[in-house]
Specification:
This protein is of the alpha+beta class. It is about 45% helix and about 10% strand.
């Protein structure tokens, strides 16, 4: 059998081009099989190996197959022979003596064609499967997608495949995604991509097809207590507490109307925004009980005329960074302090750490050195006794801050602090206040409410204690009335 195969290969290789085709098909096929066996054995697991195995090798195989008929056509043109004469010259007489449809040559062609079809179908299937894996999305274009890959692995959705959110269901969505992927490969090859990569707000699938497969609006009810700890920049890095009861209801009951009211099936909010970026609203409309819509227009943009299609509000209008979450430097430090990763008992830990992180560094190497120099230099200069006795703690803090920097700052893609807006909440502007703003006014002069207690109750706000407002208020305190109001509002919520 091997001898017949060698004879067939020699016959097919009619000229140099034919030999190139034979070499490409044979070598790519053999290499593919060997790499697949190595993968199954757990020896070869690199994502770059997947690129070679499932993209490069099948492509070379197809190119090799395509060159064979071209080589035969060129040989026929150059020699003036007929196809039958060329077959007789290239192959053994025993294989071509009988009628072609009865000859061993035909059996060889059919057999190898069947192997080729099985190989291409199998390779294509494995290629599509590999391209659906997060490791492909995150590492195939390493320098471009590295920021997204890093944040994805440390996100609440780290076990959800990229394609679950970025690629729709069905053949049309698959084709669209592959065409888009081809353009991305061209952009990477010719350095056409933007830095940082823009958030694909227009290309994301509707939340009904993604988020709501796991997060059901009908199950958003009740309240959730969230305690936020922020640390001051004083010598003790004093903690300050904000305790919220987040009202996550959808408003399905008469007395309810919390955060997820916006996406309840009983309600509908739609809007247009400047350049369709979903950040500065031109107008917002809210459906009324009679089915009509009440419009709130941005007074500062009264002269702006837009013909864009109104967008119906859904999950990603607030949860726009549900997976690729970039941290604010101060919050990142606060969270590490709350977890005990950064030692509060080091003097001015919050202030020194924040300064070390937010200096503008030329590159990542400079940043790693700079963070170490900032911390060691400060304690060596200002607190030499602390530096001598707590060197290990300072070194540990340096390691934690380096990790924070590497997670959030990516120089090659121009990703700096707060490069991407996050619309959850309103701590950094935007967020809720994009719509809940006095600038958006209806024809009757009303505006969308800005009452904080619509979405959350307060047990503490930048307070000394986590439940400050649950304690008796001092009547001499100038915030006495606010204290009492927030206390009673919280207790009313608990009673519900």
């Amino acid at each position: 059998m091997f001898r017949n195969y060698i004879g067939f290969i020699r016959g097919v290789a009619v000229n140099r081009l034919g030999k190139v085709g034979v070499i490409l098909t044979t070598s790519s096929f053999v290499t593919f099989v060997l790499l697949e066996l190595a993968r199954l054995a757990g020896v070869f697991t690199s994502s770059y190996g997947g690129l070679i195995t499932y993209l490069t090798l099948p492509t070379l195989f197809v190119i090799g197959l395509a060159t064979l008929p071209i080589a035969w056509w060129r040989q026929l043109k150059q020699t003036g022979l007929t196809t039958r004469e060329l077959i007789d010259r290239q192959f053994d007489r025993e294989g071509t003596a009988r009628a072609f449809y009865q000859s061993p040559l035909l059996l060889s062609i059919l057999g190898l064609s069947a192997i080729n079809i099985v190989f291409l179908v199998g390779a294509s299937s494995r290629m599509l499967s590999f391209m659906d894996e997060p490791v492909f999305c995150g590492t195939a274009c390493h320098s471009v997608m590295h920021p997204e890959w890093v944040t994805y692995q440390d996100s609440p959705h780290a076990r959800v495949k990229c394609v679950e959110c970025h690629v729709g269901e069905g053949v049309d969505a698959l084709i669209d995604s592959k065409l888009n992927g081809m353009w991305q490969m061209i952009s990477v090859t010719f350095n056409l991509y933007e830095r940082p990569i823009p958030t694909p707000v227009q290309q994301l699938r509707p939340a009904r097809e993604t988020c709501e497969k796991c997060h059901w609006p009908s199950k958003f009810y009740g309240e959730r207590i969230d305690r936020i700890v922020r640390y001051a920049k004083d010598s003790a890095s004093t903690p300050r507490y904000t305790t919220l009861s987040l009202k996550v209801d959808t408003g399905s009951a008469p007395h309810l109307g919390g955060i997820h009211w916006h996406i309840s099936e009983a309600n509908q909010v739609r809007y247009t925004s400047v350049e369709d970026e979903r950040e500065t609203m031109i107008w917002v409309e809210v459906r009324q009980e009679d089915g009509s819509f009440k419009r709130y227009e941005n007074r500062s943009l009264a002269s702006v005329v837009t013909d864009q299609e109104p967008r119906v509000f859904d999950c990603v209008d607030c949860h726009n960074r549900a997976t690729h979450i970039y941290e604010d430097p101060a919050r990142a430090i606060d969270e590490r302090m709350a977890l005990g990763l950064l030692p509060r008992d080091l003097p001015y830990m919050k202030r020194v750490a924040l300064h070390a992180l937010t200096i503008t560094y030329a590159d990542s190497v400079s940043a790693m050195e700079g963070i170490e120099n900032q911390l060691f230099g400060f304690y060596r200069r200002e607190y030499p006794s602390v530096f001598a006795s707590r060197a290990a703690a300072i070194d540990s803090a340096v390691g934690v801050l380096r990790d924070v920097y590497r997670r959030n700052i990516h120089h090659t893609m121009n990703v700096t602090w707060n490069a991407y807006p996050d619309h959850i909440g309103h701590a950094r502007g935007g967020g809720c206040f994009r719509c809940h703003s006095p600038s958006l006014v209806a024809a009757d002069g009303s505006s969308i409410t800005t009452d904080c207690t619509v979405c959350h109750s307060f047990a503490a706000y930048d307070s000394d204690r986590a439940f400050q407002f649950m304690l008796p208020a001092d009547t001499a305190d100038r915030s006495y009335h606010l204290h009492e109001y927030l206390r009673s509002e919280w207790l009313r919520g608990e009673a519900r």
